[in-house]
What we know:
The mean pLDDT is 85. The chain is built from two helices and two strands. A two-stranded parallel sheet has the order 1-2. By secondary structure, the chain is an alpha+beta fold. The two termini are 22 Å apart. It has one domain (7-55). Helices cover 23% and strands 18% of the residues.
Amino acid sequence: MLMAKRQKVLILGAAGRDFHNFNVFFRDNEDYEVVAFTATQIPDIQGRKYPAVLAGKLYP
Length: 60
C-alpha cells in the first residue's frame, strides 16, 4: 500500500492558540506534517521546543 505524501504545514499563532490548533487538528492527522511553529510574539521563546510527550505518534 502506498502512502500519500503529507502536506507540509507551518502554524502561525500566539498565546497558545497555535498549540491548541496543533493538538485538536494536526497532531494525529496523517494528511499533514507540521514542520514548524512561529515564535515571534512571545519574548525569549526561540529556544523552546514543543514537548515530545505531547506531540503524538506522528512526531517522534
